[in-house]
Amino acid sequence: MGGHVGGEEAEAQPLFETEVSKGKLAYRVYAVTVLIGICSIWLYRSINIPRAEEHGRWAWIGMFMAELWYGDKLPAVDVFVCTADPTMEPPTMVISTVLSVMSYNYPPDKLSVYLSDDGGSEFTFYALLEASRFSKHWIPFCKKFSVEPRSPAAYFARNSKLEDPKVAKEWLAVKKLYEEMKCRIESAIEKGSISKDIRDQHKGFSEWNSEVTKQDHQSIVQILIDRRNPDAVDDDGHQLPTLVYVAREKRPHFPHNFKAGSMNSLIRVSSEISNAPIILNVDCDMYSNNSDAIKEALCFFMDKERGHMISYVQYPQSYDNITKNDIYANVASAVHKMGLVYGCLVEDIITGLTIQCRGWKPVYYNPERTAFLGVAPNTLDISLVQHKRWCEGMFHIFLSKYCPFTYGYDKIKLGAQMGYCLYLLWAPNSIALLYYLIIPSICLLHGIPLFPEVSSLWFLPFAYVYAARNACSIAEALACGDTLKAWWNSQRMWYFRRTTSYLFALIDTITRQLGLSQSVFSITAKVVDDDVLERYEEGTMEFGTSSVMFTIIATLALLNFFGFTVGILKIIWRYGFAEGLTVQIGLCLVVVVINLPVYQALFLRDDNGRIPSSVMFKSLVLASLACLIPVY
């Protein structure tokens, strides 16, 4: 497989890691020769089937079917793709993901793809209808030329010129079909309505009328490609996988549980149509980057010795729009390319905890060729909102019956319980950091020392912890292929997240627990303006809005700048300087250096990505008032 696996000890994975198995070369020779033999048999049967007037035709066909059965024992797979808003998640992006999973190197009679549209949008349905038609051309093209990746948007963006004239002719023809399809979809969305000519193309459009809204509509299930239909074939006459559109029923004042409710609906619908024993769940922006990803994951489930113990296989969250120095620290490569945990999403934490308590084992699989690629947040606001959503859900788990210390008690080790809580307690951690950022600065302004002087032996523990922690963090980042600047960007982003995303997650979770507010699911935008994208690619941090999160960030930056400036002046003038302020000045200096992009956005930049004037004035007032707070 050539990947790194977590969730199983290396010595206990005879199928999962090739170095465990002895006689590797001999087994490969055996497997390859058997595969060649089976393919030769299939080829022989297919080209030598007797003609209709010859005896033994049906017996020959029966032999062919029997030989196919012996050669193909792969289980059926249902692929779930989830989208929630046609504006934040454009339908053209969604169908590129759908087409990438429809094109897997997997028997089409055992592959079914379901799109859950929580937005209940007729535009998304129309886009999927167009994709069902385009798949007749796209799938055979992918398999004929071994195309990777099999998302048409990603593939055509990466491959603009082809040298082989034979490939180029078909490439241009398929690209033209894709561009025409994309143009029709975007044109319909721009007009804001589906024309009568399009509506007449499929009975499914009758589900939408003037009374249907995103939050109030009936259940809509439409099978766009039914593999049981003999006419459901591609241009080469090969069977197509099943394709289904699902918009679950929604009514006002009835909780629908967001993505969890969507998954439950997909399971109910798929159980009536394909009922596959294996489910692959992907987000609408996470297209398949490896056409063999399903087969690779099945190696864990189909292992004779430990397959029955495997609950699920988790791939890392990877992106195709990461810049060199990853300005918003989206990748977290030190946590992943090491295989420690992929626990940012709420469903992963609670599923992993539940399964581990029941004695099953999840697998973290990070292959050499990335299995899925998505769209990373490319503005600071989107990144902070995304982490707020994750953090809020995880803290909610800690306060629920699934708290690792109670639900996992006497089922999993204390170390594992603490490992889960490391993520579940992100929200309350914000209070400690905020205190460390505010109080030392204010005390510095008043000349009150909070740390030992550098000459004291008590200074050594502080210095060692700080130096050791950062040295280890840098070593991990560099070992995982990050640049030093990328590591520094990640430190800045953790600072921003802990003072904003985690704080608001804490407040929202507590108010919801007290019944003072209701859950709100924030969808992160997947598209931005060209000038925003240009600044992202240049590595320039994007502010640009009057978010209250930016007010907090700017206020803390200014407060620490004031503290650092006053501390330096006291050293220069030796006025009111007290023992023990050196560490506080150093702490403020670190915060000031981290916030250099904030000062630039406040005072130096003149583009649309700067911090708005209203935020600057509010932050100046708040920071100035904080300087006047008395310290007791």
What does this structure look like?
The chain is an alpha/beta fold. It has 2 domains: 74-287, no CATH class; 303-631, no CATH class. The protein has 22 helices and 10 strands. It has helices spanning 24-47, 57-71, 91-102, 122-145, 152-158, 165-191, 196-199, 258-273, 293-301, 346-357, 380-398, 404-407, 414-424, 426-445, 459-479, 484-499, 501-513, 530-538, 548-573, 582-594, 596-604, 613-627, and strands at 4-6, 77-83, 111-117, 220-225, 242-247, 278-283, 287-288, 310-314, 361-366, 372-373. Strands 4-5-3-2-6 form a 5-stranded mixed sheet, with helices on both faces. Helix 10 links the parallel strand 8 (310-314) and strand 9. Helix 14 crosses helix 20. The termini are far apart. Mean pLDDT is 84; it is low at 1-13, 18-22 and 338-346.
Question: What are the key terms here?
Answer:
632 residues; alpha/beta; 5-stranded mixed beta sheet; 3-stranded mixed beta sheet; 10 strands; elongated; glycosyltransferase; golgi apparatus; transmembrane; membrane; cell wall biogenesis/degradation
SSE map:
Blueprint: E1 4-6, H1 24-47, H2 57-71, E2 77-83, H3 91-102, E3 111-117, H4 122-145, H5 152-158, H6 165-191, H7 196-199, E4 220-225, E5 242-247, H8 258-273, E6 278-283, E7 287-288, H9 293-301, E8 310-314, H10 346-357, E9 361-366, E10 372-373, H11 380-398, H12 404-407, H13 414-424, H14 426-445, H15 459-479, H16 484-499, H17 501-513, H18 530-538, H19 548-573, H20 582-594, H21 596-604, H22 613-627
Parallel strand pairs: 2-3, 2-6, 3-5, 8-9
Antiparallel strand pairs: 1-9, 4-5, 7-10
Protein name: Cellulose synthase-like protein E6
Binding site for Mn(2+): 259, 283
Keywords: Cell wall biogenesis/degradation, Glycosyltransferase, Golgi apparatus, Membrane, Transferase, Transmembrane, Transmembrane helix
